Amino acid sequence: MIAFVCAMPRELRPLRRRLGLHRTESGYIGRVGEHPTIAIVTGIGTAQAHAATAQAATAQLLDTVKVEWVIVVGISGAIDNQTPIGTLVLPELVVSGADCSQYRPKPLRLGDAHGTLWTTDSLLVDPRVHADLRNRGVVSLDMETAAIAKVCEQRGVPWSVLRAVSDRASDGSVDAEILGLANPDGRANSPAAARYLLRHPGAWLRLVRLARGSKLASERAAEAAITAVS
């Protein structure tokens, strides 16, 4: 069985729609061609961030379902301000910002992998940090992949990652307040969003732009993930 692992419901939504997945106790199941599949939502962050995390959710999946291949699917923030929204991210290396541990994903048949995906629980807004990461070959940031990779490698399960750019880390579009508008499970926190707009009435265009970027990136990542296993 192939497992698609997403952090947030919005990342799972296009997979559910395109593949006609239906919900079970273990996750959302269906098929891609001849391959049985299961998809889960882990929540945002690694084990350090929240109890219902990517690490815990992935471990539970692999301990209860016979999975032959895990594919991390979702969105990420680009380091380079010039990276177009929706650009696919196929990293050759994933690094945990917590301890600099490194993980190499199984290649996908979608083109040459390049660059490093940096997993962090922290919101990185300092331009000096961005410059340092670029010098290390980092092309994009996320909050879950290294934790998922760690669990997969501990259990001897091959894994890959396929993300698409939803925003840019260095353009100021996402800050701590924006990040707080999502619950730990990745669902939108509507009361928090309403309070945010009361404090910042001119920010609605920013939220709309981020929502559109997230939707486009989720669609691109899902489409590519399905292609990769078809």
TrEMBL record:
It holds the Pfam family PNP_UDP_1. SUPFAM superfamilies: Purine and uridine phosphorylases. One of its GO terms (biological process) is nucleoside metabolic process. One of its GO terms (cellular component) is cytosol. This is Nucleoside phosphorylase domain-containing protein. Gene3D superfamilies: Nucleoside phosphorylase domain. PANTHER family: 5'-METHYLTHIOADENOSINE/S-ADENOSYLHOMOCYSTEINE NUCLEOSIDASE, 5'-METHYLTHIOADENOSINE_S-ADENOSYLHOMOCYSTEINE NUCLEOSIDASE. Residues 2-95, 114-173 form the Nucleoside phosphorylase domain. InterPro entries: Nucleoside_phosphorylase_d, Nucleoside_phosphorylase_sf. GO terms for molecular function: adenosylhomocysteine nucleosidase activity; methylthioadenosine nucleosidase activity. It comes from Mycobacterium xenopi. It comes from the Bacteria.
